Amino acid sequence: MAAVIFLSLFISTVWGLAPSGPWDQFNFAPASRVVTPQSVFQVVGSVDGAQELVSGQDGQATLSGDGSYVVLDFGKEASTVGGRVSLTVNQASSDSALSLSFTESSQFINPKLSDDSCFSTPTLDGDGVQSLPSPLAEGLFTQTVGEQRGGFRFMTIVSNSDSPVTISNVSLGITFMPQLDDLRAYTGYFSAQDPDFHDPDFLTKIWYAGAYTVQTNTLDPHQARQQPCPQPQGWANNATGGPVEGTILVDGAKRDRNVWPGDMGISTFTEVVTTADLESSKNSLLVMYSTQDPATGALQYSGPP
Ligand SMILES: *[C@@H]1O[C@H](CO)[C@@H](O)[C@H](O)[C@H]1NC(C)=O
Ligand SMILES: *[C@@H]1O[C@H](CO)[C@@H](O)[C@H](O)[C@H]1NC(C)=O
């Protein structure tokens, strides 16, 4: 018997909110622009109170010993987040030292390396870690715009000295799609059930994964990836992605944080149906036209930098 596929795609003509329904459970966008770790993925060495760092707890954790670390999972199912990390250092001594490393996949969790976000190398050691300023100051630490990660799920907090350090209040301020207070406020929905497939909601899940990915690719134009990358290691997400203000639709949240018109053939339509955002695509087209060679009419293959 042929599979019966029921497909429904709805775009409100007045850009009102999409009706709520069973499809909302597949919406990956976080309910708040400030998110906290969902769980402790791994502890290595001596970390006392690691569980206090996850969502809903407000206690403290103490890392003791050079090389001790805790891996926090920010993921909701398999989704990533992007933005500026904050944490409070409650107690540190003059030679305490902390670093942060980041990865999308648990396969690349490493206390000395992050997954590549600035450029791709076979040795995967382009980004390294972010070392917190030394001496480690007590109080609230927040990543700068340049230090933010565009897409990650796992953050590893590492003690790089034998002096204990006590931390709390780990959170992430999401920077993508800055024009939306409620990232889940979609104007369109997608629901396509295939009762004969082992997962009847498979297509709907794929749609919502794509919808959220496009949201993470919608950036403040001053938060593009710097090229060339910091040497010998590092990343910097404070470049200007074009001569526009507002938001731009870029190729990727983590690595290719610039306008690539080839991707817009899909991402623009996805974004229109999901959040009715036309502004970011309009701005990205303006960025591309700003690259036009006045003599030949040729456009660059991507926007700056
Ligand atoms: C906890 O972190 C938030 C940022 O998410 C900050 O506004 C707040 O001041 C911090 N609290 C303390 C006690 O440091
Ligand atoms: C951009 O970010 C990098 C990395 O964090 C930093 O070194 C640099 O000073 C920043 N540049 C500006 C102009 O803020």
UniProtKB/TrEMBL annotation:
Polar residues: bias regions: 222-240
Presence of the UniProt keyword Transmembrane in the record: no
Organism: Dendrothele bispora (strain CBS 962.96)
Gene3D superfamilies listed in its UniProt record: 1.50.10.10
InterPro entries: 6hp_glycosidase-like_sf (IPR012341)
Entry keywords, A to Z: Signal
Protein name per Swiss-Prot or TrEMBL: Uncharacterized protein
UniProt region (Disordered), positions on chain: 222-242
GO biological process, one term: carbohydrate metabolic process
Signal peptide coordinates: 1-16
